[in-house]
Design goal:
The chain is an alpha/beta fold. The protein has 8 helices and 12 strands. The termini are far apart.
């Protein structure tokens, strides 16, 4: 009976000893880890080739991580005045050595410095490609001497005036461009009945609107009631051209039009 009772006691003692050993190992594991790591390092330093050992230490501790170079730039958008290669060149100019670490907002800002770029969006395509979505400006008219006006009424000044730039011109201050485009649109709609094509609009310092036609005729519209005055041109145009080629039509009168004919101007020149 005593022998049977001693057996469980021995088992419990052994179990307690094992648990004590495990607790001791757990308590001192940092020391074991440091010692093992140090021993491994010493053995590696002792037995690995000296030249390889020095190179590894130099690469890991004194040199930065290898930058990831840009692979491909995929340009999206309907481009007429900008070439995809020009867009790629500008992206490369803005990209730092590591494409992963580059802030894409700075790349977008650099692209927006090109006058033809209205909006741009850039997305990463892993591992090292970029997708560039470009909205190019669509010119609608010339502005003064060097600028252009796009279809949104925004003025921009390209580095070089394209040979395919529109012939329509807008000669007003920058803050009046949208108003000038509205006047031009009214003139196009009202004068289409007589096949008269406006090619330019301007306003003088007194606020008087003027519209130039493709046939060289200048319309002086005044400051108010422009649609009604344009309508008046279409009503009397056949009678006007029946007497010769007009040069200027002054519509600032309430019930009539003052017409200046080119032949009259030539006759006055000869008299003088």
């Amino acid at each position: 009976m005593a022998k049977k009772m001693a057996t469980p006691r021995i088992k419990r003692d052994r179990k307690a000893e094992l648990q004590a050993i495990i607790r001791a190992v757990i308590a001192f594991w940092p020391i074991w880890f440091v010692a093992t790591t140090a021993l491994t390092g010493l053995l590696a330093y002792r037995y690995w080739p000296a030249d390889w050992r020095v190179n590894v230490i130099w690469e890991r501790w004194t040199k930065p991580s290898t930058p990831i170079a840009l692979d491909n730039i995929h340009v999206h958008g309907e481009l007429r005045y900008l070439s995809p290669e020009r867009v790629r060149d500008m992206v490369r100019e803005a990209i730092q050595q590591d494409v992963i670490k580059t802030d894409l907002t700075s790349v977008q800002a650099h692209l927006l410095t090109n006058a033809w770029v209205r909006q741009v969006r850039i997305k990463r395509r892993p591992p090292a490609d970029l997708d560039v979505f470009v909205e190019e400006r669509r010119p609608l008219a010339r502005w003064q001497e060097r600028g252009l006006v796009d279809v949104n009424g925004e003025v921009f000044i390209p580095e070089h005036m394209p040979t395919t730039a529109p012939k329509i011109f807008v000669d007003v201050p920058k803050d009046s461009v949208r108003e000038a485009l509205l006047v031009l649109r009214q003139a196009v709609n009202k004068l289409a009945k007589e096949a008269l094509r406006p090619v330019g609009v301007g306003r003088d310092v007194l606020g008087t609107w003027r519209v130039e036609l493709a046939n060289g005729v200048n319309l002086v519209l005044g400051r108010t009631d422009l649609p009604t005055r344009l309508e008046r041109v279409t009503k009397v145009w056949p009678a006007i051209v029946a007497h010769g080629a007009p040069e200027t039509l002054d519509l600032r009168y309430k019930h009539g039009i003052a017409v200046r004919y080119a032949a009259l101007r030539e006759a006055q020149k000869q008299e003088n």
